[in-house]
Specification:
The complex is a heterodimer of chains A (75) and B (769).
Chain A (H helix, E strand, L loop, with lengths): L1 E9 L4 H9 L4 E7 L2 E8 L2 H11 L5 E10 L3
Antiparallel strand pairs in A: 1-3, 1-4, 2-3
Chain B lengths: L4 H17 L18 E6 L8 E7 L2 E7 L11 H4 L15 E4 L2 E4 L2 H19 L4 E5 L5 H15 L4 E3 L6 H11 L16 E5 L3 H4 L1 H13 L4 E5 L12 E3 L6 H14 L5 H7 E7 L2 E5 L1 H8 L4 H8 L3 H13 L3 E5 L1 H4 L4 H15 L8 E4 L6 H7 L6 E2 L3 E2 L3 H11 L14 H9 L5 E5 L3 H4 L3 H8 L5 E6 L12 E4 L8 E4 L4 E5 L12 H15 L3 H7 L5 H12 L11 H6 L3 E2 L23 H4 L18 E4 L16 E6 L15 H6 L4 E4 L1 H7 L6 E5 L4 E8 L7 E5 L27 E7 L1
Helix pairs in contact in B: 3-20, 4-20, 4-22, 5-14, 8-11, 8-12, 8-14, 11-12, 17-19, 20-21
The chains are: A alpha+beta (75), B alpha/beta (769).
Chain lengths: 75, 769
């Protein structure tokens, strides 16, 4: 089990759109929003799996940046 | 209600991210935290790259248990994936804990007393029998400034040999010589603050997203805040960094000199240069009969005639439309910032290509104001502070002084209190040449500290042979054993690592930062500084110079060394007398120059308007901008007329691919630290060869196939990763893996000016095994 937190930065005015896109990703939990920055925690079987989810974020429309803050696979 | 471990970790993760963006999250009601908080938080700096992110290290029960970014430092609390995993590097199972002496093929534990006795006697005997140039030191851009200063003082001032160099020769030497040859002094004139003001970024030879992720974050953020900001990414690989680029300039490796000249061609021919700036602040030079010779702007314009975008396209395969557009964006943006790293530096024309980037800034006046600057990114956490600035390289003396300069040698001899004529005027051997000399037994005793040349030297097999010989004497100070270097040593000294000792780091933007000691080192590991002071003192006594030993090396701790270093900087273009230890403990780094205790540090050099405190000291007549390091040129920077030359070993019929090496985000340098972190190792466990789908199809390779890569120097078998990242004819291998020594293949051809090897380009062939 692994977890990681990232900050997802959206284009201006696109927070709701991105939140909707994140909502359908079962491994991702949104913890809050500040301006156009969304705090997301990603879970997976291991860090490789978590990383794949995070890399998938980079392909979502209106997401400008995904910035890793914390990761652990001790869960 | 107690949280489950999983819930706790998720919430901790969320809290960390939330604090980075200033979002308040409260614990769910009724929750009791299940984690042990750190009892103390100690301010420091990340151990990894030259970005120099500020951190706080959490300590509980004598162990580092956590790390968080320093939100009051330039990185605003952000760390990259590696920085988040700093604590485990201290607790790897293979930490070196005791001195080890080689006996045949084995290492046996010895006492520190015996280790130092052996080491001192070996070095002293060699000096007595073979002269002072029979011993050498190879240091590091990861050592603390205090450590590099003391050992430099011993070798150059105490022993009188310039046989001392460091691993920044392999990464930053071309950038350093580039700055000096253009501006008269080393180091960027701007800072990370310029990122917030730039309207155009020209990023060349750098995969910032993986090599300097936190700085990349600032660039990305700038782009998000203003969609009109232009990002030009120039790289033969379409890396993660290119994801945010408005233009990706893709070109044949080693042909960027033609592109940069062509951009200058467009700027001049279309009248986009800043005539007033050029007339006021620039000289033009070429080389005639191996000497610099001044030429006119008209001669420069004529020189550029042949470097049309068409010519550059034929040479580089970079579309001429891209070259023209890039030139116009560069010149016409309100403020243009260039950022580069090893793609330019690790080349046989590294200095020249650095000059050509500076040329564009000088030609257009895109310099010395907010957002307009030419900024070289540094690989190691203290290549700038300890080695470039501190003068550890074999041609340097501290703080901008040179061994070849009579007055500089005299200054340092007086400062150190050594006899006139002690410091040799001839530069010593650079990194590769130290190991060549060690191979030939011209150097008979070598001390390597805080670096891993047994993995990092180019044409590696050749130099590992020399390091493995038993009729010379090699000491390795290392935090881990075995490393690919310590395994070849005669004597291994266990070293304290990172926050197991205190000292100073100086990162890319001239920011010097103090790292406090947080925990004790394991076993009998000692800080390198203490070992160096003891060695220096004992060696000089053994050589019959007891008085000198007392005079030079009675320093008791890193603060005393730091105070001497500050005094050494006084009056130079670095002047950081104002960085007292007390201030360094309080502040979140200070940028030099910082000449007085009330000076806040310098965001931008060479400009009075933006607060360079030394400008009018060195150039009292200057109105605003003065490149006061270039006194001989009337305080003007140089635009260099460098002819186009390609790499030393381009691809050919026999070796039709170019191999380039570089970094991955998960790992740092030779992986001695990051490969010890289970999470990072699981994420990136092994080396691979990256090849694009078109080339893979031609060679008959698919992902996960075993591929043999062969150069003129050696071969290696790696797993293939077929991705559309490298351009046709280019393959990429990460440098981090001790079991996959990619440097067995790389060339040790080096830049004649900087002596930096061309890690980035050599010719290989690929075949499926």
């Amino acid at each position: 089990m692994a977890v990681a937190s990232v900050i997802v930065e959206t284009e201006e005015g696109a927070v709701e759109t991105v939140l909707n896109s994140l909502d359908i990703i079962s491994q991702a939990s949104v913890y809050g929003v500040k301006d156009n920055q969304i705090v997301v925690v990603v879970e997976g079987d291991d860090l490789r799996a978590v990383n794949e989810v995070i890399e998938h974020f980079c392909t979502i429309d209106k997401i400008m940046g995904v910035h890793s803050v914390f990761a652990s696979d001790y869960a | 209600m107690d949280m489950t471990r999983r819930q706790m970790l998720k919430y901790s993760a969320a809290l960390a991210a939330a604090s980075a963006v200033g979002l308040e999250l409260s614990l769910p009601s009724g929750t009791r935290a299940a984690v042990n908080d750190a009892h103390t938080w100690v301010k420091g700096v990340c151990r990894f790259c030259g970005a120099g992110c500020g951190v706080y290290v959490g300590v509980a029960n004598g162990r580092v248990v956590a790390v968080r970014g320093d939100k009051d430092n330039w990185n605003r609390g952000f760390l990259c994936i590696k920085g988040n995993f700093l604590p485990p590097i201290l607790y790897a199972k293979d930490r070196a804990k005791y001195p080890l002496l080689r006996k045949g093929d084995q290492f046996v534990r010895v006492s520190w007393k015996d280790a130092m006795d052996i080491m001192v006697n070996k070095f002293a005997d060699s000096i007595k029998k073979n002269g002072v140039n029979s011993v050498a030191f190879y240091g590091s851009g990861q050592a603390y400034t205090e450590e590099s200063y003391v050992i430099n003082k011993l070798f150059k001032g105490g022993l009188g040999t310039n046989n001392i160099d460091g691993n920044p020769r392999l990464c930053m030497a071309s950038a350093a010589v580039g700055y000096v040859s253009t501006f008269g002094k080393d180091e960027p004139m701007g800072s990370y603050d310029d990122i917030y003001h730039a309207d155009c970024f020209f990023i060349i030879g750098s995969n910032m997203a993986e090599a300097h992720p936190v700085i990349f974050r600032l660039v990305n953020e700038r782009k998000q805040k203003d969609r009109n900001v232009k990002i030009i990414m120039a790289d033969p690989r379409k890396t993660l960094s290119a994801r945010i680029a408005d233009m990706h300039m893709n070109f044949l490796p080693g042909t960027d000199l033609a592109i940069l000249h062509a951009m200058a061609h467009v700027i001049v021919k279309e009248g986009l240069y800043n005539k007033e700036f050029v007339n006021s602040h620039v000289v033009f030079k070429t080389m005639k009969d191996d000497k610099p010779a001044k030429v006119t702007f008209e001669e420069y314009a004529k020189f550029l005639d042949e470097y049309t975008p068409e010519m550059a396209w034929k040479v580089s395969q970079c579309p001429k439309e891209d070259i023209i557009m890039a030139a116009r964006w560069f010149a016409q943006s309100k403020a243009t910032m260039s950022l580069w790293c090893m793609g330019l530096n690790q080349r046989t024309r590294g200095v020249w290509v650095n000059n050509l980037v500076h040329n564009l800034h000088l030609l257009t006046g895109q310099i010395c104001r907010p957002g307009a600057t030419s900024f070289s990114l540094t690989g190691q956490p203290n290549a700038c502070g300890g080695v470039r600035d501190g003068g550890l390289l074999s041609h340097l003396l501290p703080y901008g002084r040179l061994v070849i300069n009579d007055k500089d040698r005299e200054d340092m001899e007086k400062f150190w209190g050594v006899p006139a004529g002690r410091i040799q005027s001839k530069p010593g051997p650079s990194a590769v040449d130290i190991f060549r000399a060690f191979n030939k037994r011209e150097i008979k005793a070598l001390w390597i500290a805080c670096t891993n040349p047994g993995q990092t030297l180019p044409n590696l097999a050749e130099y590992r042979k020399g390091m493995g010989k038993r009729d010379t004497f090699m000491v390795v100070s290392e935090a881990y054993h075995p490393s690919r270097t310590s395994e070849l040593a005669d004597l291994v000294l266990p070293a304290a690592l990172w926050v197991e000792k205190d000292g100073t780091y100086g990162q890319s933007e001239r920011r010097y930062q103090y790292l406090d000691k947080a925990v004790e080192p394991p076993g009998e590991a000692r800080p390198d500084l203490a070992v160096m002071i003891e060695f220096a003192s004992r060696l000089l006594k053994t050589l019959g110079r007891e008085n000198e030993a007392k005079q030079l090396f009675s320093l008791r701790n890193s603060e005393e060394v730091w105070n001497e270093i500050r005094r050494c900087s006084k009056g130079t273009a670095y002047d950081f007398m104002g960085m007292t230890r007390a201030r360094m403990k309080r502040e979140h780094g200070l940028r030099w120059p910082c000449p007085t205790e009330d000076h806040p540090g310098t965001e931008r050099r060479y400009t009075a308007r933006y607060g360079d405190p030394l400008l009018h000291k060195f150039d009292p007549q200057a109105a605003d901008i003065s490149f006061y390091g270039a006194k001989a040129d009337g305080n003007r920077a140089t635009i260099w007329l460098r002819p186009y030359k390609g790499p030393a070993e381009p691809a050919d019929a026999e070796y039709p691919f170019v191999l380039t090496t570089g970094r991955q985000i998960e790992h740092w340098h030779t992986g001695t630290m990051t490969l010890k972190v289970p999470e990072l190792k699981r994420s990136a466990p092994d080396a691979y060869v990256e090849i694009n789908p078109r080339d893979a199809q031609k060679v008959g390779i698919k992902s996960k196939d075993k591929v043999k890569i062969t150069s003129r120097r050696g071969s290696i078998v790696l797993e293939a990763r077929v991705v559309d990242v490298p351009r046709d004819g280019l393959v990429f291998v990460p440098m981090h893996y001790p079991e996959k020594l990619i440097n067995v293949l790389t060339t040790d051809a080096y830049d004649a000016l900087s002596k930096q090897p061309e890690f980035k380009i050599c010719a290989v062939r690929i075949e499926r095994t």
